[in-house]
Amino acid sequence: MAFNPFIYVAGLVMEAPLYHLVLEGLLVIWIFQLLFSKSYYIRKRPGLSAKEEEELIAEWTPEPLVPPCDDPPPENNNIVDKIATRTISINGEERLNLATTSFHGMNGDKSCIETALSAIDKYGVGACGPRAFYGTIDIHLEFEKRIAAHMGAEIAILYSYGFSTVSSSINCYCKRMDIVFCDEGANLAIKKGIEASRSKVRYFKHNDTDDLNTLLEEHARWERKNSRQAKVTKKFLVAEGLYNYYGDICPLKELIAFKYKYGARLIIDESYSFGVLGETGRGVAEYFGADNSDIDVVTVSMDHALGSNGGFAYGTAYMIEIQRLGGLGYCFSAALPPYLTASALKALELIDENPKLISRLKENSNYLYDQLWSLDGIKLSNHRDSPVFHLRLMAPTTWGQDFALLQRAAERINARGVAVTMTTYVRSEELILPEPSLRIVVNSCLTREDITRVSGVVSEVVTEMLDAK
Amino acid sequence: MATKRFTAHEFTRINLSEHNLGKQAKDFQPNVRQSHPKLHILYIFRFYFTYALIYLAGYVREFVHWFLPANSTYLPVDTEKNIRAGIQSVVDGHAGFYLRNVFLPVNACFHTPLTGSPSVKFEIRERKRNHIFEPLFELTGKTRKALNFGSYNYLGFAQNDGPCVEASKVTVEKYGIGMGSSRSEMGSLQLHRDLEKLVAEFLGKEDAATFGMGFITNAGNIPAILGKGCLLISDELNHASIVLGAKLGTANIRTFKHNDMYDLEKKLKKAIIEGQPKTRRPWKKIIVIVEGIYSMEGTISYIPSLIALKQKYKFYIWLDEAHSIGAMGPTGRGVVEYWGSDANEIDIMMGTFSKSFGAHGGYIASTKAVVSHIRRQTHTNYASAMTPGVAMQIYSSLRIIMGRDDRYPNDGQRRIRRLAENTRYFRSELYKRGLVVYGADDSPIVPLIIFTPNQLDIISRTFMHIGIGIVTVGYPATPLLECRLRFCLSAAHTRDMLDYCLHTIDDVSEMFGLAFLKNRPIPPIPFPTPHEQFKNFIT
Ligand SMILES: Cc1ncc(COP(=O)(O)O)c(C=O)c1O
């Protein structure tokens, strides 16, 4: 007889004990209930009719696109009308240049400009495409090669804008699960990079290694408890070589020690220390006699010492090659104009050939520091070797008042033939707003007499202002 | 200039015709056809199968390498010290696998180095690697001449001679290389101001601000107009810089389907009716961000329907014209002009100078209040101003486009017309051939879809061998299954160059079987451009 499933099942049912059947029946009912019932209940709002919806839409009035601004700050009327190196000409008035950050005047150097001109003759102006899509010009490759060799790194990567260099680099490695330990005083580019990466971030007090140690210890304790999660949580230490907002230098040796102790990757932004710190201007690692290869990624903006535009990052091929696919500012932006690359390359050569530039910059900085540090009512937050000076009030009141006071001081200093600026802070964007500061940027083109004059003017004005207060 | 007003509905209906190619809409509606042909299911199956094979080979490879010493994989490794300290690897998981096994083998078609300017005829530096899985290349020292179908040189201003370059050189001599200071400190030239004024005038806006990089123009300025309680609705295929800018703000972000005005309307309706999540308060403001031309799809955004929607839903529009400024519209003023719409309806017009102008940087044009707010809030207050040489290149090329340069009064117009003609010619030739081409009929970006990544490298090399440089794109810049070749047309391409390229495409498509639509090619271009369709309505 052929197999009849119906009879087979019926037989099973007949044979089974009753309690079995009841139990199975209940199970089947339960499964059906699980399958077809809603697992959650949404309390439905009473549905709106189409008319009500239309009314809601018609009623809604948005705020204006930007908040109204009652007292807009005056427009910046400082128009530069010549090349700014030792002096800067503003609205036809020649002043000593302590405002721009081209530390060696490479933006106006004769041979740099000549190189730039012949590069324009060869390459035109724009690169007209991202690096991956025919934006790579041989000069970019050459620059990457030379800068890597110069810094003793394996490879380097060239970005088209200084600000994007560090933020894209950070954003490329740090992912959602990771944790970043960052200095509170780091510049906006770094903080925006971290913000974009959506990683967890712990800010440690500015240049405070004890605080950092506490945070790292805390994290290590968490790791011991959650060892599985810890395996996928990468750690990063982020600092600046020479702080843009303070002019002081990061404790590199300690950072490196922490790096190996806690197994974190170290990212340093050397935008202001490249071409400045160290015997030959190779940055903060050289300054402390540390090994460059202990830093995983170094990022540098070329706006400053190299007097051009753009930026680069260097490190091991293992770290940097990832940026070619993951660095947003690299992948999704047009390459740096070739002529800016060529002139930066020339500037690098010049700095390399003349270590005197570095030592003169250091002398100038030291000299001005020695003149200004004892000034009453003012504190200098910068290091003695730093060419970036930040003058802050010894007795701060409110942010706005201090800013206004310092700004008036800056205006008077400018009026006496020394160009200085206030540090621009976009207040709503800064998580931790530094105190307002008057910034003086020393460069290596200035002579000793110039510095004497600067310190004279600054001391006079500051004393006057504070007395008047 | 007043144009006929349309309701949102009329335009959203046109949007549907995107999926029904060749559907004739009513005569008086401006019509733009955007092709996005669907393939037979068997093809799709084939592509998945190819991927499966690639992955399988990758897994086998990784398995074998597991037994081999680390240096035999050609891949760079972390330093000894880092490994000893137990620092986690930065490439792991699927991303690492994709990188090593799918991306590296085809790596050779990216980052092709040039020498000389990226004009329509350029010179490629040859390079080689010893092994297909090796990431780094060496230059061989040989060069090769080729036609450029890769650079974003829409109007042909990327040259190393001509008036713009000369002007730029003079400026470099006069003002130096970099500014070393931000615009808000001591990095402003009169040139910057003149440029901003000219850009504002060109776009028909009150004011404009310029920035040193196009990417940062989005990423560093979008946060400035967003705040708590704002909603940002962004096209799902928007550029990375827009996505980044949106992430940096504190606003809520939602996306709508690519260029789908129906979907946008749905999202808008829902947002306004439901208000903010949790608190249910109404949104403070809603900002919609779209691009003029999408650089990977070649699609053009539906500006008139966007404006019609805006009138009803009162949102603000941020329009990124990176690729369309200079390249679209009868006088090069971008997609707004192309559609015959009113620039005043677009709240913020953003664009870049790195494409049509052959320079670098970006702009934002809007009302005085908005621009000065952005000037105060931009992240570029911490970065260097636009370099003088670049600013001059933009200034002089913009003057040529506007016909202001007395020496070349008609040059700008000639270039714009040329580009439009080239685009229509090239696209209709491709349609005839049964190739899968995406995008609008008037978009100078022509993506030719080849679907799987395994052929990217060999196709790119075939083209290069014949003397044509094209862009090949794959995941993650495109969806996994839509790898493509991209041709960027230029006003400087001659008909001969286009024909040469088309011949090559014929051969390549035969070799690799790319004519997926052979039996039902995309129909010929039915419509004149919108501004031509509109001619009678513009009073
Ligand atoms: C839509 C869009 N926005 C912004 C950018 C960035 O511009 P830039 O290359 O000048 O940085 C691009 C460039 O690729 C783009 O396509």
TrEMBL record, chain A:
Name the Gene Ontology biological process terms: ceramide biosynthetic process; sphingosine biosynthetic process
Transmembrane spans = 18-36
Domain Aminotransferase class I/classII large, first and last residues per copy:
96-454
- UniProt-listed SUPFAM superfamilies: PLP-dependent transferases
Write down the InterPro entries for this protein, in alphabetical order.
Answer: Aminotransferase_I/II_large, AON_synthase_class-II, PyrdxlP-dep_Trfase, PyrdxlP-dep_Trfase_major, PyrdxlP-dep_Trfase_small
Q: Name the cofactor(s).
A: pyridoxal 5'-phosphate
Q: In which pathway does it act?
A: Sphingolipid metabolism; Lipid metabolism; sphingolipid metabolism
Q: Which Pfam families match?
A: Aminotran_1_2
For molecular function, the Gene Ontology terms on record are: pyridoxal phosphate binding; serine C-palmitoyltransferase activity
| Assigned GO CC terms | endoplasmic reticulum; membrane
Identify the domain of life: Eukaryota
Give the E.C. number(s).
Answer: 2.3.1.50
Q: Which UniProt keywords apply?
A: Acyltransferase, Lipid metabolism, Membrane, Pyridoxal phosphate, Sphingolipid metabolism, Transferase, Transmembrane, Transmembrane helix
Q: State the family named in the UniProt similarity comment for this chain.
A: Belongs to the class-II pyridoxal-phosphate-dependent aminotransferase family.
Protein name, please?
Serine palmitoyltransferase 1
UniProtKB/TrEMBL annotation, chain B:
Which molecular-function annotation in GO is an example for this chain? serine C-palmitoyltransferase activity
What SUPFAM superfamilies does this protein's entry cite? PLP-dependent transferases (SSF53383)
Gene Ontology, cellular component aspect? membrane; serine palmitoyltransferase complex
Under which EC number(s) is this enzyme classified? 2.3.1.50
**All residue ranges annotated as the Aminotransferase class I/classII large domain in the record:** 145-505
Any one biological process term the GO annotation gives: sphingosine biosynthetic process
Keyword annotations from UniProtKB, A to Z: Acyltransferase, Membrane, Pyridoxal phosphate, Transferase, Transmembrane, Transmembrane helix
CC cofactor: pyridoxal 5'-phosphate
Which PROSITE patterns does this entry report, sorted A to Z?
Answer: AA_TRANSFER_CLASS_2
* Name of the featured protein: serine C-palmitoyltransferase
Q: Which organism is it from?
A: Oopsacas minuta
